[in-house]
Structures are given as structure tokens and as C-alpha cells.
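ok, trying the design again with the full structure, not the truncated one.
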């Protein structure tokens, strides 16, 4: 629409161009019969193009006399962005399918104690996140303008739309009206702006040719900014803050609260999400075999030692239960048979009776159980079948069926201190 190689130029305006009229080139200009320049349509009208992601150079291709007004960085004191550096492209997930499971667990951990969340990821991995409680899922390319998630407590943006280098070169050549050589992006230093006012160095994938980089940023960077915008950070107040967890490598035009290299959930955290944290190394190996959990009892014992033994594991499980706001117990049990030692397990209180029944089915005979509260939410009162701090001999053999079962007791736990701030991811 303007001079240069390969531009789009209108011919003389006709209301009804002839059917099948051909296009032709004049120098480096493509002539389109019957085409009227867009800025002529609104030349006599007040016109405003409101967009946070539109490239100014592209806007001027359509409206040469447009005036660009940049309102500057608007404050978002109740939106906090936590950025994690790593490999987040579709090819990274294709090379390591287990990484999808890691990210699902990461989101589940961050959603502990939260009632609403949104995940925006690649379309190829969208299905993996659909089962997370209280969490909706969208994919990149399907989020623009969506205002349904302005009240979510947590937003997870995983990767961004990443066009292949060949497509980037074609678009850049069309915009430049001349051939732009094919190239691939390379690691490029950049700086992320922190809420405290300082910068943090990081690396991103970028093109050395500014024409290619402008196209790439218009797709990748703009797509991520669109995704972050679903949380409506400008509208947040102290009554409904939001945490944004960004898994992408780029400098944002808005300040971020933290930036770190991504750490996958620990094995202990993954056991917590599976509703069972055994302390016995044999149980850890039996219930969670193979990589990347516990390929042997020795591996489980070493992991337990690194976590600080039973005391260290118990402290971590209690912190996770506190974040989740769910009652958890410490269960000590021992089959009354030769060679069996006492075992300790942390598990949700709601799973206590089911686990006891499973143990009885597995071992038969008498089993000693002793349950104590690990964590109780504030204001807790319950009827339980497995009492705290007392042994229950549960008979299973034919000769012992006449033994009376213990009578359930009613126990009230004193409310502990309030849970800590729920906004931290890990």
C-alpha cells in the first residue's frame, strides 16, 4: 500500500470490478483492481485502533497517517508474575513426553488451596491438564479477547505460539517487499524487569535480522502477552489478587515478581499428590517403582535420607497439607506376624479407613494401627473409626471373627495456626 518492493497497491477505485479481472505487478507493487485502501474508508470518521499487541509498523501499512499513543506502563499492584526459564516449546514436550506429567504436577501443586485457575498451553498438550480440579484449560490461539477468567486466582502460561523459521522468513519478506534470507533463531541475551526496579539477565530465542525478529515477536511475544491479559491484571484489587506463572523465555513489557530456572516437582511432592507418602523404603519402591521415582529400595532410602528422614519428610508433608487445607494423618502400622516391623505412612485423613482395609486384605490376621493427626484445618471435629494414639487389633482370620470391633471415638483437634500465604508456587 506504500512504495517499495512487493507492496500491495490499489488501482483506480471501481464500485463493481469486473469478474475475473487479473492482478498484475508494476515494479515491486501488486496491483489489485477494485481494492480501496483501508484508511480511505475511515478517512472522514473518528477512528481508534485499541490494541496492546499490534505492531506499530504494521498498523502504519494500513493507516499511514495513524498517530501512535503509548499510555506507558500502567501499575498492576495486585498481579504478580513468576517467570520460569526452561524449554517450553512444542518440540521440547515431544522430545520428553514425561515433561507433560511434570507440568501437570507443577500446576496441581500451585493450585493447592486455590479455588479457580486457568492453564494456557499448546494445543497438543491441552488435554493433559483437563483433569486438574478447579482449573480450566485453553490453548494458544484460542484466548484473544476472552474475559471469562478475570477472577481466577492463578494463571499458568506454558510456552507460546512459535512459528517455524520458514514461515517467519516468508512473512518478513512480504512486509519488507523484498527477499529476507532464511535464518534460525539463536540464544540472545536480554533483561527482565523486576517489580523492585532492577533487571535480571536471561536468554531468549531471537533472530539476528531485525525484520525476522519483528515478525517473531509479533507472534511469540504478542501471544504470551495476550495470554497473560486473560487475568485482567489492571482490574485486580486487594480483594482478588492473581498470581501468573509464566513458563517462557522472553523479557516482558511489565514488571515480574520473580524469575528462576524451572525445578520439577520433587518425588516427595509427587507422592503427596498421589495421596500416600510412605516412610519405609520398601514401601516407597513398591508403590512408586521405576524412573524417575525409586528404581530400588536403596534409591528410596537415599532419597529419604536427603529429605531428613522421617522428621524431615513429616515437616514437608505437613506444609503441603497446610497449603492444601486438607486433613492429613500419621499412620503407624504393623502386621502381627513374624519378621514384620512397624511402618509409618502419611496420608489424607479421608483415606485412612480405605488404606487400613487394603492392608488387612493384603496381610490378613491381626494388624496394629496407630493414627495421629499430622495437620488439621482450623475448626476441626470428626467421627473416626481408627482412633488416634491407640492400637486397634483388626481380626481377619476365621477363628477371630467373634472378637468385638473397637467402638469409634469422637475426637476434636485443637485448631492450629492459620495456613501461610498461598501465593507461592513451590
Amino acid at each position: 500500500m506504500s512504495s517499495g518492493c512487493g507492496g500491495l497497491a490499489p488501482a483506480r477505485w471501481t464500485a463493481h470490478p469486473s469478474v475475473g479481472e487479473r492482478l498484475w505487478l508494476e515494479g515491486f507493487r501488486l496491483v489489485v483492481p477494485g481494492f480501496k485502501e483501508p484508511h480511505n474508508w475511515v478517512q472522514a470518521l473518528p477512528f481508534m485502533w485499541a490494541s496492546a499487541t499490534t505492531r506499530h509498523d504494521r498498523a502504519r501499512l494500513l493507516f499511514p497517517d495513524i498517530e501512535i499513543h503509548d499510555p506507558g506502563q500502567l501499575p498492576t499492584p495486585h498481579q504478580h508474575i513468576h517467570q520460569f526459564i526452561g524449554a517450553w516449546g512444542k518440540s521440547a514436550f515431544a522430545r520428553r513426553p514425561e515433561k507433560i506429567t511434570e507440568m501437570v504436577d507443577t500446576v496441581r501443586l500451585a493450585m493447592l488451596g486455590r479455588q479457580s485457575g486457568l492453564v494456557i498451553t499448546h494445543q497438543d498438550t491441552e488435554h493433559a491438564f483437563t483433569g486438574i480440579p478447579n482449573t480450566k484449560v485453553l490453548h494458544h490461539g484460542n484466548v484473544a479477547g476472552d474475559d471469562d477468567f478475570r477472577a481466577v486466582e492463578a494463571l499458568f502460561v506454558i510456552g507460546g505460539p512459535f512459528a517455524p523459521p520458514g514461515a517467519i522468513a516468508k512473512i518478513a519478506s512480504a512486509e519488507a517487499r523484498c527477499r529476507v534470507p532464511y535464518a534460525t533463531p539463536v540464544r540472545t541475551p536480554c533483561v527482565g524487569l523486576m517489580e523492585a526496579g532492577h533487571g535480571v539477565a536471561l536468554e531468549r530465542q531471537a533472530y539476528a535480522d531485525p525484520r525476522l525478529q519483528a515478525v517473531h515477536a509479533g507472534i511469540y511475544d504478542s501471544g504470551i502477552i495476550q495470554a497473560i491479559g486473560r487475568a485482567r491484571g489492571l482490574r485486580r484489587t486487594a480483594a482478588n489478587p492473581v498470581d501468573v506463572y509464566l513458563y517462557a523465555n522472553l523479557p516482558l513489557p511489565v514488571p515480574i515478581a520473580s524469575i528462576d530456572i524451572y525445578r520439577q516437582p520433587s518425588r516427595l511432592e509427587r507422592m503427596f499428590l498421589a495421596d500416600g507418602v510412605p516412610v519405609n523404603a520398601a514401601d516407597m519402591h513398591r508403590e512408586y517403582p521405576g524412573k524417575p521415582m525409586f528404581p530400588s529400595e536403596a534409591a528410596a532410602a537415599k532419597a529419604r535420607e536427603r529429605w531428613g528422614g522421617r522428621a524431615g519428610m513429616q515437616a514437608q508433608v505437613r506444609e503441603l497439607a497446610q497449603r492444601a487445607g486438607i486433613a492429613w494423618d500419621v499412620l503407624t502400622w504393623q502386621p502381627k506376624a513374624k519378621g514384620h516391623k512397624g511402618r509409618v505412612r502419611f496420608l489424607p485423613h479421608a483415606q485412612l479407613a480405605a488404606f487400613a482395609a487394603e492392608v488387612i486384605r493384603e496381610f490378613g490376621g491381626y494388624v496394629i494401627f496407630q493414627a495421629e493427626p499430622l495437620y488439621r484445618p482450623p475448626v476441626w471435629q470428626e467421627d473416626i473409626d481408627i482412633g488416634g494414639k491407640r492400637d486397634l487389633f483388626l481380626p481377619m482370620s476365621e477363628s477371630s471373627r467373634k472378637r468385638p470391633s473397637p467402638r469409634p471415638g469422637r475426637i476434636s483437634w485443637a485448631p492450629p495456626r492459620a495456613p501461610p500465604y498461598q501465593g507461592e508456587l513451590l
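Keeping the full-length input from now on. Residues 267-413 form one domain.
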